[in-house]
Description:
By secondary structure, the protein is mainly α. It has one domain (2-179): Butyryl-CoA Dehydrogenase, subunit A, domain 3 (Up-down Bundle), CATH 1.20.140. Helix content is 79%, strand content 0%. Helix 1 packs across helix 4. The longest helix is centred in the middle third of the chain and has 28 residues, at 57-84. The model has no long low-confidence stretch (mean pLDDT 84).
Amino acid sequence: MLMQLVAKSRLTEFKQEFHEANFFGILNYITNQAKTVIVEMNPITVRRTDDEHLLDQEFHLSAFIYRERSILTSAAKRFKHRLDSGMESFDAFNECQYHMLNVGMAYTERIILEQFIQQVNRTENKTLKSVLKKLCDLFALRLLEKNKGWYLEQGYMDGSKTKAIRRMVNTLCWEIRQEAVPLVDAFDIPKSCLGAPIVFE
């Protein structure tokens, strides 16, 4: 239900964005789309597998933004097509429910990543910052791996890149494993909770 509300809000914002946009606003949108194709979807970038690139926060965020925008645009087109054919908005929303949930999830994931990156960059303690950066990278790459089919279909990545992402996820899991105890202790879970009957069920 919450994801549906998020999706509805995003569709409303999307509609207003184009309704209020003048010629230059639309031109700017087209320019940004072209820039994405040139910078992020060129033959070199879609195949790039070096560690520096795979661990680059700008790459992570750009990939999340691209997916969110693409899914939102697709859902808006599907919804409008049904409305234009005379379908009631309630029925149109229900028919597009799968796509709406994806809109809500993509938006939520992008917001989480943005906040995560901001916190990593604000952290001054070098040791803590290093651990948080690994966790942030793992969060981003795990979701890119999870959605690799979508990225492959869009031509945003090729098979060698998704395989490299999977290997990097495994590497990060191994590295973060070394910090498992401190990370769990950081939650400061009371011993009374750890000893609660529900823990042993």
